[in-house]
Amino acid sequence: MAAQFNHPDLQVVVLAAGKGVRMRSAKPKVLHKVLGLGLLEHVLHSAESLAPKGISVVVGFGGKAVREYIGMPRGLDWVEQTEQLGTAHAVLQCEKNCENSSNVLIVCGDTPLLSGMTLARLVEAHNSANASVSVLSVDLDAPSGYGRILRDKDDGFTGIVEEEDADAEQRAIGEISSGIFCVRTADLFKLLHQVESNNAQGEYYLPDIVSMAVSQGLLTQAVKGADAAEILGVNDRVQLAEAEAVMQQRIIRDWQANGVSVEQPETVRIEASVSIGVDTVIRAGTHLIGSTRVGDECFVGPYAILMDAWLDDRVEVFSFSHIVSASVGAGAKVGPFARLRPEAELDEDVHIGNFVEVKKSVIGRGSKVNHLSYIGDTVMGGGCNVGAGSITCNYDGANKHQTVVGDGVFVGSDTKLIAPIEVGDNATIGAGSIISKDVEAGGLTLSARPEQRHMANWQRPSKKKG
Q: What CATH number corresponds to the domain at position 52?
């Protein structure tokens, strides 16, 4: 994601060390996906949009798996929290990484809906007020599970109380802490070294730095965010689905605002890494997954599935077609009920019809494979026409072999091309042929057919009883 802001004096700390027990999963919580990207990936994209000095990711449970999944992008530092002793303890592990920054922005790795714009507003409010500690807060109708924002009678911000430690009156407070802080670096680590674990969980809580800062006369503030959904933390699979539903609605609305028609959007899935051109129509039940790219003026669906697919402009993908790691040229038509498997490459104006499967094959411009066919490990020229029921026999039981078809070839219905084989330009192959030798260019090629016979007194076998 390209940087939208510029904060070269800011260090971002992302807390991603938790196991996520409520997910009931063998993998770290932050690797569970929302619309194709891990929870942590979404958070990192938002953090990167700030163009900070650096980003430190605190990992613990499954730290190796997290590092391997995310990779090693430039400017990302990995910090190990060997014992999960609380959020304050986690941030304290980053002291060395933050020593040359003016401020530290602390975010949670399980908040995939958090936007870079909201983070930028928090940082800007923090800088404008010249505050020591700023926390992002929101109002919730159902605040259960979150720390509550405490204010005095003059509405001044005085601290945060975790739900486990709150009394009945405090639990009734609707303003909650997001767990996202911006703190002056010089003050942050002084306060962190003073945090104690005298609470119900016996952990070192990051929110404790707020009341400590207030008692020491440091300027603190709670900055309210506009969208409460952004701070939704994912702790179980119910919340994972809730976050995905919110994000999906946002993504679809963004594409609609950018010239894409989405029919029955509540039935459509468009993942976060997908790209769609203008005047394209996405019909009901369609799934666009992974790094799929759809060009301008395309029609996709209904109920088509595209995964890591590439569609040029003016492509039509009809109902119930399945395209995975394949590319389709401009003006081509696919389906209905077609399947393009990995490394299928269709040139411009190709027609792939119903119940046709194409795998690891190149099909040239204007060629047609319209009915009930399998094309595998094939290079086909332009202007060809493959009749219904024809297949390339590319597998001998041990190895795959290639079929090469020239330009302008006509293949009659129910033909078997047994690879390895080459068919010359403008050749015509008669229906029902089994071709196991190269075919010369031009002319008509037929394989031998058995004589047709009729047995007048033959009877169909009856089903055995008992």
A: 3.90.550.10
